[in-house]
Amino acid sequence: MRKIPLALSLLAVALEFPVALADAPKADPSLDAFLQKFNQAFNTFDPKEVSGHWAENGTLVSPVGEWGRGRDGVARVYAHDVEMILRGTTSTFRIGNARKLKEGLVLLDLDHEIQNARLPDGTQGTMKLHVVALVEKKGGKWSMLDARPYAFLPMPPAAPAGK
User: Fold this and answer.
1) Which candidate, 129, 147, 142, 44, places its Cα nearest to that of 93?
2) Closest to 129 (Cα-Cα) out of 83, 89, 100
3) In a domain, 158, yes or no
4) Which of 41, 75, 90, 119 could be joined to 47 by an S-S link, Cβ 3.0–4.6 Å?
C-alpha cells in the first residue's frame, strides 16, 4: 500500500470541508473608504475633525472609561486621549470583522495599532487595542454610532493542579 504524504492528506480533508477555508466577511468598499478617511483624521489629532466621523447622537468610551456623548462629547474624550496617549503617535485601524446587522448598520471589530504610544508603565512603544464600533450609513454616508476601544488583558498563569 502506498503512503500518502501528510500534507496531501490534510489538503484532502480541507477540501472536504470548504467552510474551514472560507475568507472572513468582506466589508463594503465604501466602509473601507470611510475607515481610511477616519484613520487619516485620527492621525491629525484634531478633535473636531475626528468627531465629525460620528453621528450626532454617537458615543465614545475611551480605554480608560471616559464617556463622550454626541459630537462635542466625542471631541472632548478624543482630545483628552491625545493629551494622555496619542500625541506624537501614528495610528493604524484595520477591519478584523464586519457583521451586517441590517441594511445600513454594521458592527465592526477593528484592530487599532498605535506606534510610539505612551504606555501605562510610562515607557513608549506599540500599543494594540481592539475597537468594537457600530457604524451606520445614512444618505450614502457612513458614521460611527458607538465606539468602544479596549486592550485585552494578559493571560493569567495556569491554576495549580487540583485547585
Assistant:
1) 129
2) 89
3) no
4) 75
List, in sequence order, every residue forming a beta bridge with 150; answer none if it has no partner: 130
Cβ-Cβ contacts under 8 Å for 118 (sequence gap 6 or more): 84, 85, 124
Which DSSP state fits 139? T
- Tell whether 34 is covered by a domain: yes
Which residue range(s) make up the domain with 107?
25-150
State the DSSP code for 27: P
> Which of 25, 24, 26, 27 is closest to 142 using CA atoms?
27
Give burial (CB, 10 Å; 0-12/13-18/19+) of 12. Answer: exposed
User: Could you give the number of structural domains in the chain?
Assistant: 1
Specify the range with the lowest mean pLDDT, choosing from 1-5, 25-29, 112-116.
1-5
62-103 pLDDT, tens digit per residue, is 999 999 999 999 999 999 999 988 999 999 999 999 999 999
Q: What CATH number does the domain containing 48 carry?
A: 3.10.450.50
Using left for φ > 0, alpha for ψ between -120 and 50, and beta otherwise, residue 135 falls in beta
Kindly report whether the global pTM for this prediction surpasses the value 0.85.
no
